[in-house]
Fold this protein.
Amino acid sequence: MKLRRALVTVTTTAVLPFALTACSSGDAGGKSAPSASPKAGAPKADLLNGTRLKSLLLPVGVLPKGYHADPQATRDTGKALQAPASSKALDLAGACPKLEASAWIETSGVPSASFAQADFVNASQEEFNEEVDSYRGTDAQTVMKRLEKVLTHCASFKDTSNGTTASVKVKTTTVPKVGDQTLKAVLSAPEWEGGTTLVATRVGNVVITTFYNVQSSDMGAAGLDLTKKIAAGVQHAK
């Protein structure tokens, strides 16, 4: 069985996109074992497995005080690589609401060979989620191209949650000199207090994605510096 990411959904309210720790309808409630077939489990020198990727994630001590790990949304694919799978067609029509969830890299529709993910929340339900995925061939480049298309398509969209409709704006910029390619997107809405910063960085065949949802006016700007720290570790990983 292919291990699926924990999907932390953000429900929009008039105060803040409120982080709820819950798996998507397609996710198993706990960690599933990766495929044990030779094709899936055979290690490759150019691919970092989930165990190695997990070691590159930032610990809770790097975050502001008050955050704690959410074990239900923290997982990895272990030592085995996931079986190769075909990419799904890019679904721009259904992509925009998925930007308000931690596993927003799923909007690319490109399956990874391995991944590791960690999620942290505080008492105010502010959330930082980090994920590192390793890809075969040129899939990492494809992921970045597709994420850029999604963010461009979702520059402005309506989101309805709990009876409240928010007019969401997504401002996307490229960030030079961070990895091989970096995109930063800031989600905001007049109906929200605070906002969300998304960052995607490619380092070789690895893609790092972070999700920082806060109540403060900086919209989670610290997410970029946190992503840079992960990227630095990936650049030196073997």
